[in-house]
């Protein structure tokens, strides 16, 4: 199926009908990038994000922003009023250099239903509108849709960096910007966000070590997709949380792991604030650090769990002809984890439906995706003793042949870890 056929299929079968589309100005002929920003009670932050988009980019005429101001029909009045004021102020904002389209999903007649309201539904509405507008322009092989958050400013040159990647002949299906959480002046918050980002980057190293199909970070505000990639994934899931993770998993499974490209020159600064809006993510992590202490992230999942997974993915190929050896050749702890998930019958079914060892290995990797890898690692942490994250990072980088990344760095002392040294470790990992 061709790119245009995939997009047409998505628009016909899955895309939302955006009523406001007919009321918005026609897209400029040179439009190549739509930046979609869901906003829920973000009046105080959205302006800073919009301002940051203009910094350092010379191709603003090729971009536009779609802000989806949203809340559920049962939202507190304080949230609704914040959103309505946001809509009003965005309507008065100068959009000559960088047009801003405001999609109202907050007012009484347009608010999202209770069962579907959330960041996933908001992203999807904005991205469906973006896809329709890019189709009108007719340059889909040079276009992109970027996800951003209303509290996450970008580094200078963000728009030009995205356009240069998706303008190229070898443009990716989906790309991920780099991310760097700002480190607050408040010491407690600073220690919390450094611990959390260290953990995020350690988990990514673990996934790389495990040779998972989905060994990449899944920060929602870093996702940039081609129109084709968006259609291949059947759009952004309407999940209340984790929509970014599920979207990227779908892309990797449909297009292969090489379909997700890492962009080093486009940087997003996700907010480091405390929040309980969603059950996981940065806001929830900051909340946990406040309530439980930063040790929940500085004492991490054992690296051995990821090594167990690497062995599992290796053995699957060898067990295509002799399935019984799979449960015998992997770690007993992992075998018990699979048993509790009724996984052996699933894996045997995947093997029987695979034409050869390569296809079976791919199918097993898709079934045991990165979410399951992290769950196994978390269970290993509960069953064994948690590990000092700096020691595990050292071991992971050594296994990956990247130990030079932390050359000359001391390992922070567990009893009294020097914060400036933790920050130095984080900066080295950010440069990976």
Would you give an account of this structure?
The protein has 432 residues and is an alpha/beta fold. The protein has a domain of 251 residues: Spore Coat Polysaccharide Biosynthesis Protein SpsA, Chain A (Alpha-Beta Complex). Helices cover 50% and strands 11% of the residues. Helix 6 packs across helix 9, helix 6 packs parallel to helix 11 and helix 6 packs across helix 18. The longest helix has 24 residues.
Brief digest:
The protein contains 18 helices and nine strands.
SSE topology sketch:
Layout: H1 3-13, E1 33-39, H2 43-54, E2 63-70, H3 77-91, E3 100-105, H4 119-137, E4 144-147, H5 158-167, E5 174-179, H6 187-210, E6 223-225, H7 227-232, H8 243-255, E7 260-268, H9 282-292, H10 295-298, E8 299-300, H11 303-318, H12 324-329, H13 332-340, H14 343-352, H15 357-367, H16 370-383, E9 387-388, H17 389-399, H18 419-430
Parallel strand pairs: 1-2, 1-4, 2-3, 5-7
Antiparallel strand pairs: 4-6, 5-6, 8-9
Helix pairs in contact: 6-9, 6-11, 6-17, 6-18, 11-15, 11-16, 14-15
